[in-house]
Amino acid sequence: MEVKVLNVSGKETGASVHLPESVFGIEPNDHAIYLDVKQYLANQRQGTHKSKQRNEIAGSTRKLYKQKGTGGARAGSIKSPLFNGGGRVFGPQPRDYSFKLNKKLKQLARKSALSYKALDNSIVVLEDFTFDAVKTKTYIQFVADLNLSDEKTLLVLPSANNNIYLSSRNLKKSKVITADQLSTYDVLNAGKLLLTTDSVKTLEEALA
């Protein structure tokens, strides 16, 4: 698949780049995508939720009233889950939600997500660029020149660029990552995927 290369002003440079079929043109595997996104979201969970059980409640252990003759149900402790302020039955406990996926399955999921973006014509390829200084205004202008101000964008760089990353960090609809950080969730969560010519090569080497 051939895609025209744009400069930072949104103008065509006259060059084009080939998106390899082995990465951007495979038959998407929806189940692999589902598992990879599920793992990504599970790994975001801290799992620090906790409620107190009856043995953890601070309170008296005195028997509330005599066992028989009251006409009511027997009760042995104010810490019973039946009483207001008592412990909780089967409440949440700290746990780890993460789980393992095979590398090849995660690779298939990323290629499937990239193929969906290619099918939707949602990939924009830019010539390699950098910013001279950290300026959010510069990044806003960069996105506006590409006519993507209303889109959620994901810019994938071949390697870390602090000026570009810090310039985009405060913007809700913009995210900047490096090619080795690319996840299936990020690709699908973005409206437009912005790649540089070098990041296309990096992705091809990593996923092909």
TrEMBL record:
Q: Which InterPro entries match?
A: Ribosomal_uL4, Ribosomal_uL4-like, Ribosomal_uL4_dom_sf
BP GO terms, sorted: translation
Note whether rRNA-binding occurs among the keywords.
Answer: yes
Q: Does the keyword Metal-binding apply?
A: no
Gene Ontology terms, cellular component aspect?
A: ribonucleoprotein complex; ribosome
Q: Where is this region: Disordered?
A: 45-77
Domain of life, per lineage: Bacteria
Q: Name one GO molecular function term.
A: structural constituent of ribosome
Q: What Gene3D superfamilies does UniProt report for this protein, alphabetically?
A: 3.40.1370.10
Instruction: Give the record's keywords alphabetically.
Output: Ribonucleoprotein, Ribosomal protein, RNA-binding, rRNA-binding
Q: Which residues, if any, are the signal sequence? A: none
Which HAMAP family does its entry note? Ribosomal_uL4_B (MF_01328_B)
Q: Which NCBIfam families match?
A: rplD_bact
Name the job this protein performs.
One of the primary rRNA binding proteins, this protein initially binds near the 5'-end of the 23S rRNA. It is important during the early stages of 50S assembly. It makes multiple contacts with different domains of the 23S rRNA in the assembled 50S subunit and ribosome.
Provide the family line: Belongs to the universal ribosomal protein uL4 family.
**The protein's assembly and partners:** Part of the 50S ribosomal subunit.
- Protein name, per record: Large ribosomal subunit protein uL4
- Supply the source organism for this entry: Mucilaginibacter paludis DSM 18603
Name of encoding gene: rplD
